[in-house]
Design goal:
This protein is of the alpha/beta class. It is 38% helix and 13% strand. Strands 1, 2, 3, 6, 11 and 12 form a 6-stranded mixed beta sheet that branches. It has a 4-stranded mixed beta sheet with strand order 8-9-7-10. A hairpin with a 2-residue loop joins strand 4 and strand 5. This is Alpha-glucoside ABC transporter substrate-binding protein.
């Protein structure tokens, strides 16, 4: 009997397709005095003329993206800075979600914020209705041209489009070492049952050596717990299907519905199983004290763990020099569904909200929705871990196999795609009780029923 039964829901498709022109390229035969080339730089500025001369201005950007993932973002602003004369001041914080609200309350917002939860955007618009500026004209035009309609909807509140899509990611991945799998004769599983069978086989083969099938970490500053919410979201898609997932997100069924409880039980069969976790890091409770950045690293330490479920962007957290490829040091496989044909996909992304309508802020928000930025960001991320849903992104600029695989999965219209549930829920739940209760579930062994009841009680 299958541990997970097959159910179908309505597909929600986010496409990453098409080709775009790479504008941020060496100027080649351009002469130093060419009007279309940034002074002292090598960027073709023709596409930036629409933004005008912004010399002497500064745009502040506040995000949850910290080292080592921050530098590619900073590097991707160089063409905009060279061609417009503006300066972009980047600040990343692990306490972003809490501190952004503090800054808004104090009347000290950043010019631009990368908001990873549409639910948080709804909260901000509701609590600080005059703080967020509607998306700039150039931003609207770019999103209408280069993004699937669903992405615009995630940044819209009460009919007003505020926040434009930035990066996209695929969350339904399991990281592993291809060499270690080959050495042990392990095959990549294609169904959930095969995944559990593989976990049991690893226990049988390696328990005496202190090695475990899985390692995990859910620590993330004030956002601790979010990786555990991703686990539950992926399992809701696999045990209940897309229609139930949508009902859960919209609170058309309670958070403690039996179908959600079933999915949490499946997550617990891995994350709260002492035989399965936490390879190289400790017992079950160590998952809560281990940062998500460190959670998968034991895969590279003599195979102290064999698998780590984490999103495509985790590629940026492997140590410098790690070969992330199908025949390299680490790679990822799709987190299987109930059968090989049923392949639901969980994804996420960030959204660019502006808190000022100054010309330089409007221009920078528009730049972040352009093919020029998507391609510059791809080139600035040679180690991988980033992809965009912008149709103007040239896939050739995605040098990482994992990013190419992510783009392929996102572009597959047969996939049942769903956006991260906690990011869509009201902030009090999605960026609040859901995080803290899943942390208590791990750290304090809080029961499944008590966790789900507490989250349900937090729903506004």
């Amino acid at each position: 009997m299958n541990r997970i039964t097959r159910r179908r829901g309505t597909a929600l498709v986010a496409s990453v397709a098409g080709l775009g022109l790479l504008i941020t390229a060496c100027s080649g035969g351009d002469t130093p005095g060419d009007d279309d080339t940034a002074a002292g730089g090598d960027t073709d500025c023709a596409a930036f003329e629409q933004y005008g001369d912004l010399s002497g201005t500064t745009v502040s950007v506040y995000t949850s993206i910290v080292a080592p993932e921050d530098q590619p973002h900073i590097d991707s602003y160089v063409p905009f800075e060279e061609c417009t004369g503006a300066t972009v001041a980047y600040e990343g914080s692990k306490e972003f979600e809490a501190q952004l609200l503090v800054r808004l309350e104090a009347g000290n917002p950043p010019d631009i914020a990368y908001i990873p939860q549409p639910g948080l955007l709804q909260t901000i618009v509701g609590d600080f209705p005059d703080a967020v500026a509607p998306a700039s004209e150039g931003t609207v035009a770019n999103v209408d041209e280069y993004y699937a309609e669903s992405w615009k909807g995630y940044g819209t509140v009460d009919g007003t489009f505020y926040a434009a899509p930035l990066g996209a990611n695929v969350k339904s991945f399991v990281w592993y070492s291809p060499a270690v799998f080959e050495e042990n004769g392990y095959e990549v599983p294609t169904t959930w049952d095969e995944l559990i069978e593989l976990s049991d086989q690893i226990v049988a083969d390696h328990a005496a050596e202190g090695k475990k099938p899985w390692c995990a970490g859910i620590g993330s500053g004030d956002a601790t717990g979010w990786p555990a919410t991703d686990w539950l979201e992926d399992l809701v898609l696999r045990t209940a299907g897309g229609d139930v997932y949508d009902q859960w997100v919209n609170h058309e069924i309670p958070f403690n519905d039996p179908q959600i409880a079933e999915a949490l039980g499946e997550v617990g069969s891995i994350l709260k199983n002492d035989e399965y976790v936490n390879g190289g890091l400790g017992d079950v409770s160590s998952i809560a004290s281990t940062t998500f950045q460190d959670g998968g690293l034991p895969i590279l330490t003599n195979g102290l763990c064999f698998m780590h479920r984490q999103a495509s962007f985790y590629a940026a957290n492997w140590p410098e020099g790690t070969d992330v490829s199908s025949d390299g040091d680490v790679f990822a496989f799709y987190l299987p569904g109930p059968d090989a044909e049923t392949r639901p996909l969980l994804g996420g992304g960030e959204f660019v909200a502006a808190f000022d309508d100054r010309p330089e802020v409007a221009a920078f928000q528009a730049y972040l929705t352009s093919p020029e930025w998507s391609n510059a960001k791809a080139i600035a991320t040679p180690s991988g871990g980033w992809v965009s849903a912008n149709s103007g992104l040239d896939p050739a600029n995605l040098t990482s196999e994992i990013d190419q695989l992510s783009a392929e999965l996102l572009a597959d219209t047969e996939q049942e795609f769903r956006f991260d549930a906690s990011d869509l829920m009201p902030a009090a739940v999605g960026a609040g009780a859901f995080w803290t209760e899943m942390t208590a579930w791990i750290a304090n062994d809080k029961s499944d029923d008590a966790v789900l009841d507490s989250i349900e009680a937090a729903w506004p």
